[in-house]
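Q: Fold this one first, please.
A: Sequence and structure below.
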Amino acid sequence: MKKLYPIGIQSFEKLRKENYLYIDKTSFVYELVKSGSYYFLSRPRRFGKSLLLSTFEAYFQGKKELFQGLAVEKMEKDWIQYPILHLDLNTQKYDSPESLDNILNMKLDEWESLYGSNPVEIGAPLRFLGIVRRAAEQSGRRVVILIDEYDKPMLQAIGNEELQDSYRDTLKAFYSVLKTMDKYIQFAFLTGVTKFGKVSVFSDLNNLKDISMDKRYTELCGITNEEIHHYLETDLHILADTQGMSYEETCQELKECYDGYHFTFDSAGIYNPFSLLNTFDSMSFGNYWFETGTPSHLVKLLKRDNYDLHQLANDKATSDTLNSIDSSSKNPVPVIYQSGYLTIKDYDKRFGIYYLGFPNREVEEGFIKYLVPFYTSIDEGKTAFYITEFVHDVEEGNYEDFFIRLQSLFADTPYELIRDLELHYQNVLFIVSKLLGFYVQAEYHTSDGRIDLTVQTDKYIYVMEFKFDGSAEEALQQIEEKRYILPFAKDNRKIVKVGVNFSSKTRNIEKWLVKEVE
């Protein structure tokens, strides 16, 4: 019988009753319930947050039968049923103040049909407060509150300050009930992609324990390498056979594609569960997670803040920066990190600095390809064609065609879209180098005004120096003077030196000079 993979299954009860694969996280559920009352967890989309809340819901409903054979079955003795208020903000498109009001009112109406209403309770916060009190009084037990994707309205309003202010004011008042009604609340758990702090939604919720970077709970969502081999060992062998790969090659490919998420320093790598389960279900590798959601709001932030894309590969941040987003901030890094497009690569304990980078190949390749139409004149549907042609050019030594094609990337770029022409030029070069790097060995460097690109193929080594409002002759001379080709002196491949100048007047590559090393 084919194993059932819980792709898109967010109901713990459905998953257990219909025999879907479940990777047991219930020991974490029990520990959280017994050690605290108010929690917040930030994780990227499709990382299992909704299923986690559904697991809490089943636990607090006292549905012991659903936990048969799981860790918590041996840990919990009482299985008490509590009144539960479960709000999911992931089901709505938020494009007006009314869109948030509508979903809150719909949920409040549903709860009031169970626990009654009071005509003096006007507005969502007062209605929510009254529901919590009546639910506790009528049941004789304190209330459990579960809120999924608490930040969805705020995220969708990035770039629209007026709308974001409206959502912030509404949610700030609504969530304040979690603090003011403490004596009626047994347990509360909020999930989201980001944490809006400082003067935003979380400013008053100082009773919430943020476990997003807590080392004890890094494995709460997502799948570890150990869990893959425990639950999916047979599947690994089937995947290897289907793909015509060895078992070792298959494990390595899974790791490179989907592993690499670190939510704190010195922790086990976490695999993206959505991509991993889709891979086993279809028995083929693919960009499953990236293709289910486009990071358009992140690109808006990158362009709004004039971000140097080169930093994506090696950016730095403090824990305060990563852990909280100010809705008025001009730093896009926290949102990119919390959305799952960057992750923690290293940590400098002395200075408290985290080093960030792409978690895996799926994210890096998907994100870079997605950037192309936003930074160049290439239409979205033609990205793959351009990549193919670029790779063929460098592999076959067609450097003239390569630079003619590169010129076309800068052509027809609207003047008003570029606030910093030199940075735009560097960003396009970075994108090109990353695209090449997925298929050949390519490295792009910038330091002290120097820009160079080294591309290595089976036959050629290209050492390129780029100038901005200089000259191609000057760029070629720098390669000579700085002896950039020295590391390749004993290499048998043909070495090609290339000097390139970009002109701010023509807003494009003005000239390139090529010299092959004999």
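Q: Good. Now the second chain.
A: Here it is, same layout.
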Amino acid sequence: MLQDPKRYTVTAALPYTNGPIHIGHLAGVYVPGDIYSRFLRLQGKDVAFICGSDEHGVAISMKAKKEGITPQEVIDKYHAIIKQSFEDFGISFDNYSRTSAKIHHDTASEFFKKLYNEGKFIEEVTEQLYDEQADQFLADRFVIGTCPKCGNEEAYGDQCERCGSSLNATDLINPKSTITGSKPILKSTKHWFLPLDRYDAFLREWILEGHKNDWKPNVFGQVKSWLDDGLKPRAVTRDLDWGIPVPVEGAEGKVLYVWFDAPIGYISSTKEWAQREGKDWEPYWKSEDTKLVHFIGKDNIVFHCIIFPAMLKAEGSYIMPDNVPANEFLNLEGNKLSTSKNWAVWLHEYLQDFPGKQDVLRYALTSNAPETKDNDFTWKDFQARNNNELVAIFGNFINRVVVLTNKYYEGAVPAPNAYSDVDEATLTEMRAYPAVIASSVERYRFREALSELMNLARLGNKYLADEEPWKVIKEDPARVQTQMYVALQIAAALSVLSEPFLPFTAAKLKKMLSISEGSLSWNDITLKEDLLVAGSTIGQAELLFAKIEDEEIQKQVDRLEATKTANIAENKKAEPQKDLITYEDFSKMDIRTGTIIEAEKMPKANKLLVLKVDTGIDVRTIVSGIAESFTPEEVVGKRVTVLVNLAPRNLRGVESNGMILMTQNAEGKLVFVNPDTDGVGNGEMIS
């Protein structure tokens, strides 16, 4: 770990512009990266927090085909949505670029040419899957087939999402093109490969030896697993018509593989920022006194810990990342987040339902961040964290302090008198929090850091509850001056220490306390005697947080349930056709329309109803296994379709004469099969 770096380059994974941003992205990458960067700035550090849209690759082409628009239209649409979402949630990038920018095309092309000219690539002719009908080579995501490892029949050409295995498209059993549905052929094509195996010794020494004590176990373990499996050359070019053209002769119709071009986007985005700010970009990527940190999700560990470092090592002039604190995945209400299935909480939609509550979501996601294992976001937990923590602890303390200061002193910060032991202990504890929170942030333990911030708010609440200035004011107003002064110092400390986690709240609190932006730093909490000087004036109280009611949460739960139902309906497959029968076989069945005229539950049987059915030819008893779906009262009067010549069957002592025909809807609920036109009498034959 680099000690006392001169500057920091902090990157956040480039989001794919094939859809908007959801809470999983925010929890896994962007809020942690923002907390870290804001924390560093509050300490006066030189920070470049870098990101941008990843606008190349097959995901963009697939989205364009699906929506019937061009790839350029896709990236322009989603780049704007994503960029706005980041701004809305206070993600404080110093630069947010895009890989379609000229500066990125130039940077990636130059990077490739340098490695090409120095002989760092292997040139090979390989057999790739080719769709004759579409007249094109198939990128990995344009191929689906059966996974050779787990048998999943819908594995992609690069990965099986069921078992997580990394694949090549040619590994798939019975592959087919997702473009035309046809079976692809193998066709020869030339590509350039980065021989990762040449960097095995370097990676082992740098990570397995150099970072065994400071990298997160989930990151270290995945890297070790890849290295132990043996590294192989990996293609850096692809046969595609969307991307950065391979800048060498004989590479017409080929582009840089997106995994090669995307991480270079960090470098080109830094260049773009440096040009705008009048800085030199190179120290942020090439000086040994720079600390480089990548914030990513666990699906990007191999790219940021093996492939990109191998690229940088091959180029020769770049530093290696000091840490890659990857998070695990966030699930939603017990199920994996899925863009394609719309199983997500989209940031732009969240703000429509919860305007002004960006910090509530940031708080809930950080409190439940998947730092060491997959975690689950639920709307009930979100509500509880807002109501029981932000409102009841943080907001309650601030409201008390500001209201009482305005009530007793017309908003002026009172001068303290002699401190009691409790006052001294409280102020001493307050001054310890910057170091405590910093220790957690510097070790990328943001949940722990946020918990310590809330402990400071708890300290303030306890101090007021124990001291009871609203009672003491009648007997000892001089004592209350000291109590309120101490409480105001805690409020001021919270306005600074909360900024990395709750930037909108911090700004609102500073305005309430009349603290100008930038006038207090992180270390001032420990070093300054007066954070709020006696005699200065604060503003009026405003609620920092509002209670979230059950109805608001139920609306979100209902929306997800509707999504789940729609997914079931969309993905439901009809049962395969049964064996063929003859017309004579069918004509033996006597199917009639009827009406249920009586119904009761079968004693000691959870699933059975005993029905009296008017079949038009008689009134008969039929026992039906529908009691878990319908009450007796619900079915009386229902028009039904009955197989009347089914052989009688004795069920729990009741003879059943026939069968009610049923089907299921998309939710798996039983539905009666009946005529769709009024006026069809009982006993009419169905043929």
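Q: Anything worth noting on the second one?
A: The first strand starts at residue 7 and ends at 12.
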